[in-house]
Design a protein that fits this description.
Layout: H1 2-13, H2 26-32, H3 38-45, H4 58-61, H5 70-81, H6 104-107
């Protein structure tokens, strides 16, 4: 879905994105036995940005004894690239605004008021 959104942005605002996909997590384990193959890590290092999809699978949720797990790839790429942030969409419920550790006025503000550096 994220890639489709970027493609729409490119089409509507005359931006250009170049995509180079790599495998990670469950798909990588099934293909190579490694949750973060060296080729994928090399591609990530050479990229300006990284867009992740889901990396897990129910197979691993139901087998906590698995020695190789999808999240190991995520932890490794974070360590290798010094990554520390996740940006995720949220749905706000007015009745729960006071329960958040984020101030309600920030949660209710326009998205344009946020900046990432």
């Amino acid at each position: 879905m994220g890639k489709k959104v970027l493609e729409l942005i490119a089409a509507n605002y005359k931006h250009e994105f170049t995509f180079d996909e790599g495998i990670m997590g469950h798909v990588a384990i099934e293909a190579t036995g490694d949750p973060l193959p060296a080729e994928t890590l090399d591609k990530a290092r050479a990229s300006d940005a990284i867009l992740f999809g889901a990396i897990g699978h129910a197979k691993y949720d139901n087998d906590p004894s698995a020695k190789v797990r999808p999240e190991q790839g995520l932890l490794k790429i974070r360590k290798e690239l010094g990554l520390y942030a996740n940006l995720r969409p949220i749905k706000l419920f007015d009745d729960l605004l006071q329960a958040s550790s984020i101030k309600p006025e920030i949660l209710q503000g326009p998205i344009s008021s946020f900046s990432v550096s």
